[in-house]
Amino acid sequence: MGSFKAAAVQMRSGTSPERNAADMELLVRQAAGQGAAYVQTPEMTGALVRDKQAAVFATEDKDVVFATARRLAKELGIYLHIGSTAILRADGKLANRAFLFAPDGSAIAGYDKIHMFDVDLDNGESWRESASYEPGTQAVVTDIEGVKFGFAVCYDLRFPQLFRAEAMAGAEVLTVPAAFTRQTGEAHWHVLLRARAIENGAYVIAAAQGGLHEDGRETYGHSLIVDPWGRVIAEAAHNEPGVIVAEIDPAQSLAARRKIPNLKNARDFAVNAGEGPLLRGAAS
User: Fold this and answer.
1) Structural domain spans, the chain
2) Active-site residue 125, yes or no?
3) Which of 5, 18, 25, 43 is the catalytic position?
4) Of 18, 75, 113, 125, which is the active-site residue?
5) Which of 148, 154, 166, 172 is flagged as catalytic?
6) Which residue of 34, 40, 103, 119 could cross-link 81, Cys pair, CB 3.0 to 4.6 Å?
7) Mind listing the pLDDT tens digit for each residue in 66-107?
8) Is 113 a catalytic site residue?
9) Where are the beta strands (DSSP E) in the chain?
10) What's the whole-model pTM score?
11) 43 catalytic residue (yes or no)
């Protein structure tokens, strides 16, 4: 693929999948109009709701975001990455699922968010994602015309072992579509994304939700694209809907890994915690 333009779409999804799909389409068209060959939307593109509302959600074959994305990818001739949307599984449970569509409209990769956002923050803000969603069990790395992309969603960002495993599998671009809360985003968003890029010598692309949503939550925005040296090369420095675009040169990932070959130099080790058996650590 060589160098290419990548875009991150920042949204403020509400409770209506149809309305969100229409908003997504306008922004994706804007990104493609700026020359982006790869376009990423945020976590929960299809609907942002506080509690499980199965009536809002549909199976893949009936999901409006899935259908709209397939059509747009083919019409615009782009790789369109839906950061995630809630998909009703055959067993009646929900998956927080990402999709990647090719320029011919085919779905070439999917990823179910592994780490559930079960937290108790300051000021009484509390979330239990596991009450509504079934976690995924498999990390995903997929090839886009010779460039390997690793998948993650939002809270996955706090688990560096996921990104290290994807980088060890060859990922040169790590993706982190998100709906970070304003509270956690202000504290940790930039530093965590830059750290994952630096640790793995990889680009990080993170499309975000931003602003006050219909369900009452407030998200941070600030969609980012970070290069393999940890430099922010594009940012939506606000929480409003919009598009950011940056040039991605996969050779820069190789260059960063040659300068600091920590992936190659990693070693397995034991952890001596005093009493009890030695604990094991792994290079990956």
Assistant:
1) 4-281
2) no
3) 43
4) 113
5) 154
6) 40
7) 999 999 999 999 999 999 999 998 888 899 999 999 999 999
8) yes
9) 4-10, 38-40, 79-88, 94-101, 107-112, 118-120, 126-128, 141-144, 147-150, 173-175, 203-206, 210-212, 218-220, 224-226, 232-235, 242-248, 269-271, 279-281
10) 0.95
11) yes
